[in-house]
Design brief:
With 922 residues, the chain is of the alpha+beta class. The protein folds into six domains: 153 residues, Ubiquitin-like (UB roll), CATH 3.10.20.440; 98 residues, FAD/NAD(P)-binding domain (3-Layer(bba) Sandwich), CATH 3.50.50.60; 127 residues, FAD/NAD(P)-binding domain; 62 residues, Arc Repressor Mutant, subunit A, CATH 1.10.10; 281 residues, Probable tRNA modification gtpase trme, domain 1 (Gyrase A, domain 2); 97 residues, Aminomethyltransferase beta-barrel domains (Elongation Factor Tu (Ef-tu), domain 3), CATH 2.40.30.110. It has 22 helices and 48 strands. The strands form twelve sheets. Strands 8, 9, 10, 11, 12, 13 and 26 form a seven-stranded mixed beta sheet that branches. The protein has a six-stranded mixed beta sheet with strand order 39-40-41-38-32-42, with helices on both faces. β17, α8 and β18 form a beta-alpha-beta unit. α6 packs across α7 and α15 packs across α20. The longest helix has 15 residues. The protein is elongated.
Length: 922
């Protein structure tokens, strides 16, 4: 198989290793060391894509990560990946790629009709077109169609089979960029005895630098806090058959004392009519394809430039046998033009490129006016100057200054230990600034997004004169290339339209990532079953053997319910909730956070972190408590038990166990290190079961060796005992609102305790129940659980717990409770809702006075927790409502616009069953 545009010798490809690949189903051949782009050019393929908006033919424009055109769909099935740059995709045997954004084929694309109708689709047309009808659902008329048209490529429809990993590294000096300046900086730092890491986005060059850790195929994409650099290594992307245990990509997190940026500069184009036709590329890219890949990108070339660098490209083209028809230089004839030995057309510009699927000729005219001449060619090499790659510099809070000589933004000063060298620092040839050539036809600024010079002028006329507004109105620089070749050109044209200088326009914000980062690399191995630890209680196997349906709570798997044959999960949960109120049930509460606090200052410490008084708690007693954040909002609720003079046990909600432990550790280590207090998480050390219901005392009495009568063991008592011959702690506390007890034993004896409880409860009708029934019981009783009601915006008073806040002492968060916004009228307060007319309560509904009122319809509050109460036989909910406690008895509407549901509800107290608490104290 021939490669007609491959040079007979030269380049860094391995001609002894031919590689077969396909593009749009056609079979081609390249060599090891090629990119997909260089291999396509070697085979004479220039048309590789269609543009995003107008579906115009597009070809390979660059040779690096700044490529705006040659984005392809790589692979098939689970390993399919869209928007892969052909210019950086290393060729491997069997590679299969397809062009994107075309139908039915690349050469004959029906979407090209958009180009014919382009006057109807200028910049920002979507903001004006899709505004009718002006109703809340008007946009939905167009959304489906627009979503189908938006984006390019297809995401894989199957789970990603590849592995990804994270790697951490530390060094004295991190050098980003493996060009001459980067290699010299790394060598100098290593010779000075520094630990050096060098990141280079290209494959290994074969050059070895002593005492330097080289990360090849690795792109540094972002600089973050404390000089942490994120880098993405493409570990096996270049292999046809990756080793089984190797990750596809590796995300590096590198901490460096100093960063040296040798990131080079990015060549930019010039906007003239037809400057997007296939066969048009940057002059530096043409030189790269010749010298690195031994590929002639065309047969007859015209070079268009405003600086000296393009003359080196012209000489390389001529040396490779390419007929260089002319060098069109925007400047008067200079020394470079006189030395090159080529036809130079000075003080001129290309005003138009002709051709359909590839450039066939260009029209060249003097810049000061005059008749254009036509020059036949199949390759146009453009150089409009260079932009130093200052993206990482800017992310490190480095400032920029505009340099008139280079017509580019250069690095100025940086508050962090970041240095910038080489072309990135501005070591570049001077240019004669030329951004656009006035002519008829589309003059493209941003090739990726089809943004033209006229679009920039339109944005300025319509008032979008701020650089960030220009970006969003025209989409200039918003593609995967992030405006690398177009950004400064767009800024210059905006400055021209506004009549101000380019520095006055400024730049957009450079944000990470510098190039796209595979989503799979972000979590690395922390995905699927490895996303977080899966915790199972000591009774888990028993639950599974009885057909429990599990749900995740925090890091734990907990039984949702225990459905019987032919019974749904909801029916099972309702049966379990009814049985707790009528007889007795048992629930696995091992997952509740348990923290032991001990030490001389334990009581004083707990007094500082709970709103209510703790130091008065007697040994052998427990107390409900609430913690606040520093800003006064509720952090968590739970119980405090005094086990000894300076020994306490705290319980927390399952979800917030880690958060509370972190809160406690922070206070002890940072805020009050002088306190003699020790905090230990013992959640996993204890298995726990809660026995609830009118017959709970009968079950517990049959299990333990102590008197559990109301007189001997009252509400909120705690004692050590033996339960079914196991050493245990017995607590009298209730989450369900019924008479209830909790038994705690060593975790390794948890199943033994559970089975003993089930056996002892058989005569009394005991049933195990899960989290769904537990939630129903909670809502019926109106107990607060941190999360739905305490959502980070509520105070203790909002939740009806204001009386718990002691006026006699200070605690974390209490001073800020006096802020006017937290005490003003109209705050959302906890209430109970009962659905009227027998209708189901809408999920996560908002509360309004009149559902038929035109928008905007004032939102009075929202539903936080809801359920069907099998004990009350109606739908109920807890909600946060403006001035809720003063609105008991009112009728409102719970509405869900997304579900199209609305229900009349009656407002009342948050407790629906036994508000006096007689059952739990009986």
């Amino acid at each position: 198989m021939t490669q007609p545009f491959r040079l007979a010798q030269g380049g860094a490809v391995d001609r002894a290793r031919p590689l077969a690949f396909t593009f749009d189903g056609a079979r081609f051949e390249g060599y090891a060391g090629d990119t997909l782009a260089s291999a396509l050019l070697a085979n004479g393929v220039h048309l590789v894509a269609r543009s995003f908006k107008y579906h115009r033919p597009r070809g390979i424009y660059t040779a690096g990560a700044e490529e705006p055109n040659a984005l392809v769909q790589l692979g098939m099935g689970a390993r399919s990946e869209p928007n892969v740059r052909a210019t950086t995709l290393e060729l491997f045997d069997g590679l299969s790629a397809e062009s994107q954004n075309r139908w039915p084929s690349l050469r004959f694309d029906a979407g090209a009709l958009n180009d014919a109708f382009s006057p109807l689709m200028p910049a920002g047309f979507y903001y004006k077109t899709f505004m009718w009808p002006a109703t809340p659902r008007g946009w939905l008329r167009y959304e489906h169609l627009i979503r189908r048209m938006a984006g390019m490529g297809r995401a894989a429809s199957e789970p990603d089979p590849d592995a990804y990993e994270h790697q951490y590294a530390h060094c004295d000096v991190l050098v980003v960029g493996g060009g001459p300046a980067g290699i010299e900086a790394a060598r100098f730092a290593a010779q000075a005895g520094r630990r050096v890491i060098l990141c280079d986005e290209g494959p290994p060059s074969g050059r070895d630098i002593a005492d330097v850790t080289l990360l090849s195929r690795t792109t540094a994409f972002g600089i973050y806090d404390d000089l942490m650099v994120g880098a993405l290594e493409r570990v096996t992307d270049h292999l046809a058959s990756p080793p089984e245990r190797e990750p596809r990509r590796r995300l590096w997190k590198i901490r460096a004392r100093e960063v040296v940026l040798a990131t080079g500069a990015i060549e930019r184009g010039i906007a003239y009519a037809g400057n997007d036709r296939p066969g048009t590329m940057l002059a530096g890219a043409a030189k790269t394809y010749l010298e690195r890949y031994a590929v002639r990108p065309g047969s007859r070339a015209v070079v268009f430039t405003n600086n000296d660098s393009a003359y080196a490209a012209a000489q390389a083209l001529m040396s490779a046998g390419v007929d260089v028809a002319a060098v069109v230089d925007a400047r008067p004839e200079g020394e470079a033009a006189r030395r090159c030995g080529l036809r130079v057309i000075a003080s001129s510009a290309i005003v138009n490129a002709n051709g359909r699927l590839r450039v066939s000729s260009v029209d060249v005219a003097p810049l000061d006016g005059g008749r254009a001449r036509c020059i036949d060619c199949d390759l146009v090499c453009v150089s409009g100057g260079f932009n130093p790659a200052v993206h990482l510099w800017s992310q490190a809070r480095g400032t920029l200054r505009y340099d008139e000589r280079l017509a580019a933004f250069l690095p100025d000063a940086c508050p962090l230990p970041v240095r910038i060298v080489g072309a990135a620092a501005g070591e570049l040839d001077a240019v004669r600034a030329l951004w656009s050539v006035r002519s008829k036809g589309k003059r493209f600024v941003d090739l990726m997004n089809d943004v033209t010079a006229d679009d920039v002028a339109l944005a300025a006329r319509e008032g979008y004169t701020a650089v960030e507004h220009l970006k969003r109105y025209t989409t200039l620089g918003m593609g995967p290339d992030q405006g690398k070749t177009s950004g400064v050109v767009g800024l210059a044209l905006l400055a021209e339209a506004r009549g101000v200088s380019i520095p006055d326009v400024g730049t957009t914000t450079f944000r990470p990532p510098y190039t796209p980062v595979t989503l799979g690399a972000v979590p690395g191995s922390e995905q699927g079953a490895h996303l977080a630890p899966t915790r199972r209680s000591a009774m888990h196997d028993w639950h599974a053997e009885r057909g429990a349906r599990f749900v995740t709570a925090g890091l734990w798997l907990r039984p949702h319910s225990y459905p019987r044959a032919g019974e749904s999960e909801d029916d099972a949960a309702n049966r379990e909730a009814r049985n707790v109120r009528a007889n007795v049930g048992v629930v696995d509460v091992s997952t509740l956070g348990k923290i032991e606090i001990a030490g001389r200052d334990a009581a004083a410490f707990l007094n500082r972190i709970y709103v209510n008084t703790i130091d008065s708690l007697a040994t052998g007693r427990c107390r409900y408590g609430v913690m606040l954040r520093d800003d006064g909002m509720v952090l968590d609720d739970g119980t405090v038990t005094r086990l000894g003079p300076s020994h306490y046990l705290l319980t927390t909600t399952t979800v917030n166990a880690v958060k509370v432990m972190q809160h406690i550790e922070y206070l002890l280590q940072v805020v009050w290190p002088e306190l003699a207090v020790f905090a230990t998480s013992v959640t996993e050390q204890w298995a726990a079961a809660a026995i609830s219901g009118p017959r709970a005392r009968d079950v517990v009495a049959a299990l333990v060796d102590i008197d559990v009568s109301n007189a001997a063991f009252p509400f909120l008592a705690v004692a050590s005992c033996r339960a079914a011959s196991l050493p245990a702690r017995l607590f009298r506390m209730s989450y369900s609102g019924e008479l209830a007890y909790e038994l705690h034993v060593r975790a390794d004896r948890g199943r033994e305790l559970w089975e003993a409880i089930v056996k002892a409860g058989e005569p009394f009708g005991l049933m195990p129940y899960g989290t769904e029934a537990m939630g129903t019981l909670r809502i019926e009783k109106g107990h607060i659980v941190v999360g739905p009601e305490a959502d980070g915006r509520t105070t203790a008073d909002d939740l009806g717990l204001g009386k718990l806040v002691s006026g006699a002492k200070w605690c974390v968060g209490k001073p800020l409770l006096a802020r006017p916004a937290l005490t003003e009228a109209g705050r959302w307060q906890l209430v109970g809702l009962t659905a009227l007319d027998g209708a189901p309560m809408p999920r996560a509904a908002k509360l309004v006075a009149d559902p038929a009122r035109a928008t905007p319809n004032p939102m009075l509050g929202h539903v936080t927790s809801w359920c069907y109460s099998p004990n009350l036989e109606k739908w109920i909910a807890l909600a946060l409502l403006a001035d809720g406690r003063r609105r008991h008895g009112e009728t409102l509407w719970a509405v869900s616009p997304l579900a199209g549901a609305r229900v009349r509800v009656k407002v009342g107290p948050s407790c629906f069953i036994d508000p006096e608490g007689a059952r739990l104290r009986g």
